[in-house]
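Study this:
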Amino acid sequence: MPTYRRITVVDDAGVSIVQFVDKKIVDSATIEQLGEELNSLVTVEKRNMLLLNFEGVEFMSSAALNKLISLNSKVKAAAGRLKLCSLRKEIKEVFVITRLDRVFDLRKSVEDAMESFKL
């Protein structure tokens, strides 16, 4: 199992729950590494049921959104599902303003998101 620097991954009932290490996802080196780690979950480890838990993330730049859009495409290509949960109000507003709330499945909590995977 690979070692990650920007994320931690826990498997639960076939879903890979991803927690972010950084509170602020802003600098380009961090975002690049984060994108590589998230993509390798799908392309290398063949995980296609992902839950990104944003609990603890205080700020995220728009460049990080591009990595999430790319990840979403990879998950869909692998016939999987991607959900995001526990977004701070300020981060969720960015998804609404950019209309990415229509692209991503945003959930209030890990429990809510895990329940929706069963549907």
Strands lie at 7-12, 15-20, 24-25, 49-53, 59-60, 81-85, 105-107. Residues 28-43 form the longest helix (16 residues).
